[in-house]
């Protein structure tokens, strides 16, 4: 059985060849694309579990391709960047990527990132009351992974869904950064505060009536985040 | 001053001659008019004395209107004498028989002189009004010209030419203090006035070069002298001169501001170009490294025994070489990006302790298995720094400590308040650095004598120093051979208001 279907989008043929060889050896089914446009075409024709997307590609480039994919799909996306600068990482996550890896990366590191991104949170607690939530004009429907705020419905990506489920299972409790990172991304994580910053912002845009003044997903300075559930 | 130079003196005397000639001609015309009236009424038409007197008066008014005060006054006296000689009995003598006629004669003279005076004054006023108007027109033309200067040549030079043109100035020189250049304009050549122009600009005082009729005046902007102007034959009112100087000041200031904008734009463009170029280079180098690294790490991560001991060893060499090359590229690009201090700092307010812990988090793989002691003084002020870059400095220092000390040796780091603000230190108990080497370790590509065999690029400390300097701060080292090394760098404290 396949460990998952992966689309590798990178303009360098050697990188594509190396990735195909390593990932296939680990049981993944791998296709490749040379440009963002080609990647979009392949995604339309076939179903994939994850896209490895190079940030610097000719044509529309990795960031723009990531945005286009994200606008219609909640597939897992891992961005490959050359720069280790904070700005590049945040840009990648902001564009909708679930994670990023800096080139040159080691194969075990890449495999760990792929596993973490494909990893699903053990199913959220079976609390019927929290699977469907309606508060103050906001509707969150966990089974269908949809959130509706003032008539506007958006779909949550897998990681956003996991993060929100984790919060909803622990309402009104401050959850430390490290706990969140390890629960949602995996035990190898814990210091990547920028992930949380970007993902919490992405969630706020989908579930908060006014994302710049959050009412539910609040920041507890220096400690972590808390899901405020009115009694 | 004694006149000595030829052309100037010639032009002055020529001028004088022209004036004298014109005056003589005027006088001749005026006297001819008086003579003509005398001849007409004495020989041709016989009218009464009063009528003749009125004709003389009208003639003098006409002379005063078209000529000057001198012509009118001379004509008045001559007319009075003719009036007396030819028309008052006894005719043909200057004696006046009837005392009443004396009164008439003096009344005539007084009226003629007063009328001359009034008329001449009016004329003078009209002339001066015309002069003012002309000056205004010239200043207006100059201000328009200054607004329309282009950037193909120095603006001060263009302004100098515009003044010479607008004021029909024979020669002038404009000194721009900003560029320290003197620009001459006008058909004639001025003697070398550079020293005087500088003196006028520096002392903010007006100088007169009487020999050549040159006026040197400072150009001020908001009380600050920014240059000076030397004009030959400055036939203009004081007010006009002041306006002219103000206009030039505004023009020069406009030029300076424009130059500053241009310079900033060029700097920004070259910075953008550099950044684009470096990104392209990073991409080009790291792409092949990525495929090599993917292959070597994949082979090495295979747990099975498919690789022989020798093969594993060879691949490890390739893998380490790849790492080293990747680090070289990364650091060379970092250094190129920050070198020369021409880069944007993304300053923010941060806790010194969080800078340390963030840097340590980033380099966990490097410090794994090493003893690290972190001591941060309590209640340190917040610092205003580019966090990413300062973390890079800490990382380079820690890496340096890891590199030059044996596995079991601890690394101490911390932050404390100091005179300069907050000082961060990273210390090791390694072999230390000699006095001689201490002055060179922050140089690019310098590597300590004991470091030849160690992995490193020789750029880490140079990068650290550039980043710290870009913050306006200092980095230094205390060390002695055998007793370890301690690196320090200072950070600027955030202003009170930005901390809230």
List keywords for this structure.
A: 231 residues, alpha/beta, Arc Repressor Mutant, subunit A, 5-stranded parallel sheet, 4-stranded antiparallel sheet, 9 helices, 23% strand, B: 500 residues, Beta-Lactamase, 5-stranded antiparallel sheet, 12 strands, rod-shaped, disordered N terminus
Explained architecture:
The complex is a heterodimer of chains A (231) and B (500). Chain A has 231 residues and is α/β, with parallel strands linked by helices. Chain A folds into two domains: 4-118, 3-Layer(aba) Sandwich (Rossmann fold); 128-227, Arc Repressor Mutant, subunit A, CATH 1.10.10.10. In chain A, 41% of the residues lie in helices and 23% in strands. Chain A is built from nine helices and twelve strands. Chain A has helices at 13-25, 36-45, 61-72, 86-94, 107-118, 128-131, 158-168, 177-184, 193-207, and strands spanning 4-9, 28-33, 50-54, 76-81, 99-102, 132-135, 138-141, 146-149, 152-155, 175-176, 217-220, 224-227. In chain A, the strands form three sheets. Chain A has a five-stranded parallel beta sheet, with helices on both faces. A four-stranded antiparallel beta sheet of chain A has the order 6-7-8-9. In chain A, strand 7 (138-141) and strand 8 (146-149) form a beta hairpin. Chain A is globular, with a radius of gyration of 18 Å. The mean pLDDT of chain A is 86. Chain B is α+β, with helices and mostly antiparallel strands and 500 residues long. Chain B has four domains: 7-138, no CATH class; 147-259, GAF domain (Beta-Lactamase, 2-Layer Sandwich); 264-338; 345-499, Heat Shock Protein 90, CATH 3.30.565.10. Chain B is 59% helix and 14% strand. Chain B has 14 helices and twelve strands. Chain B has helices at residues 6-44, 49-66, 69-87, 99-147, 155-166, 194-203, 238-301, 309-338, 352-362, 364-367, 387-404, 435-438, 460-470, 496-499; strands at residues 172-176, 181-185, 207-209, 214-221, 224-232, 348-350, 372-376, 383-385, 411-418, 421-428, 475-479, 485-491. In chain B, the strands form three sheets. Chain B has a five-stranded antiparallel beta sheet, with helices on both faces. In chain B, strands 7-9-10-12-11 form a five-stranded mixed beta sheet. Chain B has a two-stranded antiparallel sheet with strand order 6-8. In chain B, a hairpin with a 2-residue loop joins strand 4 and strand 5 (224-232). The A-B interface holds A 12, 14-15, 17-19, 21-22, 25, 56, 80, 82-86, 103-110, 191 and B 279, 282-283, 286-295, 297-298, 301, 322, 326, 330, 361-362, 364, 388.
